[in-house]
Inverse folding.
């Protein structure tokens, strides 16, 4: 296909840098109506032509505008927030901080859940961008390449939360998960424990839990200890999953001295199961968690954890978003929300 030289220049809506259907048609070498058919009724377009159009869509980062009529060029006062789950307290508290701060400024929050599925996230991103939101808040720094291209071409404020890194799309508010995992492992080692396991659920998709395991593993390796003891279940995090992991670990490795759980839900389940079976914590087995859920301080024994200020993370993300929407330049595009080791009775 011989490409028209004009394809190098993207035509835009007046007063907007949005990629248009005309841009896609020009790059694909077809009429705009053919692009429309390929996107809306793909069965009416040959597979070869459809592939050409899909490649042009991906290259340009084209997002169909789903806002009808005279609103097509308007910017809605809506901020989609895309998270892995709406049932895990980790994300609920972050969402609360985002929602409270944005609603006070006159913006509405639209929630989307991916179930830790990047394919589903990419589909959600396509859907929400079509409604011309003011900005978007996403979870984590890992997304499909096509989704990243579309977001960068979109040109509006984007914030990635929960994870901290150097390579982000626009702005980043989060915590260093590797350092968090290392923090709990270092505490357990400093308490004199030498046979330590890491336990988690859904870790094939929840890569942030794996990042914490890597921090844990590195500390044990540097201390000259067995560092690869990992118990995992591919199911949602819950108290019951924590109970099961606890029993599996002790049955498989009765010599273990301490258990480092990927989150407080799992750790709480383990503490409750230990109590039920008369296993003394921490005398017979120490237990540590991650998040800083309020439940931890009410358990018997109370739970040692690494506390992350989740509500504050949401507030900071919302503040960054508002600064950009109001035409202000934030002091930094990256905010490390930090963490704190909260030592209690379980270790």
């Amino acid at each position: 296909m011989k490409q028209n030289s004009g394809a190098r220049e993207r035509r835009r809506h007046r007063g907007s840098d949005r990629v248009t259907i005309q841009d896609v048609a020009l790059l694909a070498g077809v009429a705009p109506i053919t692009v429309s058919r390929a996107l809306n009724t793909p069965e009416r377009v040959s597979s070869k032509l459809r592939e050409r159009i899909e490649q042009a869509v991906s290259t340009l980062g084209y997002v169909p505008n789903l806002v009808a009529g005279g609103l097509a060029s308007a910017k809605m006062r809506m901020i989609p927030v895309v998270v892995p789950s709406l049932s895990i307290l980790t994300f609920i508290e972050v969402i609360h901080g985002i929602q409270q701060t944005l609603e006070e400024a006159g913006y509405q929050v639209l929630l989307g859940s991916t179930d830790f599925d990047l394919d589903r996230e990419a589909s959600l991103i396509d859907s929400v961008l079509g409604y011309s939101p003011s900005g978007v808040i996403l979870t984590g720094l890992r997304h499909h390449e096509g989704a990243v291209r579309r977001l960068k071409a979109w040109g509006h404020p984007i914030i990635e939360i929960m994870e901290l890194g150097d390579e982000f799309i626009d702005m980043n508010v989060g915590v260093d998960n590797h350092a968090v995992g290392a923090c709990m492992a270092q505490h357990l080692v400093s308490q004199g424990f030498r046979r330590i396991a890491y336990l988690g659920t859904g870790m094939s998709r929840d890569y942030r839990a794996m990042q914490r395991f890597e921090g844990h593993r590195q500390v044990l390796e540097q201390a000259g200890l067995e560092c690869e003891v990992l118990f995992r279940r591919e199911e949602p995090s819950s108290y019951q999953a924590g109970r099961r992991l606890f029993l599996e670990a002790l049955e498989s490795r009765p010599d273990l001295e301490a258990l480092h759980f990927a989150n407080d839900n799992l750790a709480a389940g383990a503490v409750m199961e230990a109590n039920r079976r008369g296993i003394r914590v921490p005398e017979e087995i120490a237990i540590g968690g991650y998040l800083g859920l309020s439940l931890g301080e009410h358990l018997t024994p109370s739970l040692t954890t690494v506390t992350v200020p989740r509500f504050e993370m949401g507030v900071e993300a919302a503040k960054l978003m508002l600064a950009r929407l109001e035409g202000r330049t934030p002091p930094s595009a990256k905010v490390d929300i930090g963490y704190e080791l909260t030592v209690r009775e379980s270790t």
